Prior knowledge:
Carboxylest/Gibb_receptor, Alpha/beta hydrolase fold-3 domain-containing protein, AB_hydrolase_3, hydrolase activity, AB_hydrolase_fold
Amino acid sequence: xxxxxxxxxxxxxxxxxxxxxxxxxxxxxxxxxxxxxxxxxxxxxxxxxxxxxxxxxxxxxxxxxxxxxxxxxxxxxxxxxxxxxxxxxxxxxxxxxxxxxxxxxxxxxxxxxxxxxxxxxxxxxxxxxxxxxxxxxxxxxxxxxxxxxxxxxxxxxxxxxxxxxxxxxxxxxxxxxxxxxxxxxxxxxxxxxxxxxxxxxxxxxxxxxxxxxxxxxxxxxxxxxxxxxxxxxxxxxxxxxxxxxxxxxxxxxxxxxxxxxxxxxxxxxxxxxxxxxxxxxxxxxxxxxxxxxxxxxxxxxxxxxxxxxxxxxxxxxxxxxxxxx
Length: 325
């Protein structure tokens, strides 16, 4: 334990978060906030925040390209889950906001970014449950249900072209929601998921894989991140973080026809992303898996600087995946 300002640290999870003995939680990164805007000066994209679950306060940030009236047909919808190891960042994070403005403009889509609750205040599986509630809220607009009150979804979305997307922890969420959507009686009504964008997915395991074994110090750090947000008996072989262990839901149940797995060449998580793609291709899932690797880049590089040349290439690849008929 260490003392800071006369307070005792009981959990130190660098570089993300500290928890003190008195219950105070100090997030060290991912705390900045930028408001939604009706006309982004760089892209012309409009955004707004909507609380869709008042009992928990869980909200979403909606994006639409400008001008929506210029589109004679309804647009694809992307439901996006941000990263942050389940414990930092938000839909208002300036880096995510900037990147998603660029993606929405490039792909000409409607996008719903989900602000799920974070650990440790809300340990897993809270983020999964909030994200599933968000997906059901979106699906209600496809059938004109009682909660279908959001005009941007009702008037501008083609619900035959719905995609799940996320980076890091958000890609992990996308995987689990797609499995849940492939189960009988899933509750998504008329809405069907066309594809999933898995961007540098956050999967892990107790046994090191590939280059993970070359860096045992960093392996121990990533182990600690997961055990902090999900204090389960399964540790890093909990099926939530390791979809390849015995007892994990079968990838055969993924509820879409296409999956794009993107990894970064310098990212320690790349081994799991590559393996996920390989296992998916060999599974009985009847869809088409695609793979895209960006050499020389690290984890979530496209969020850190969405205007770099490699970020533009990755975002363009995602836009092409969404709009391909």
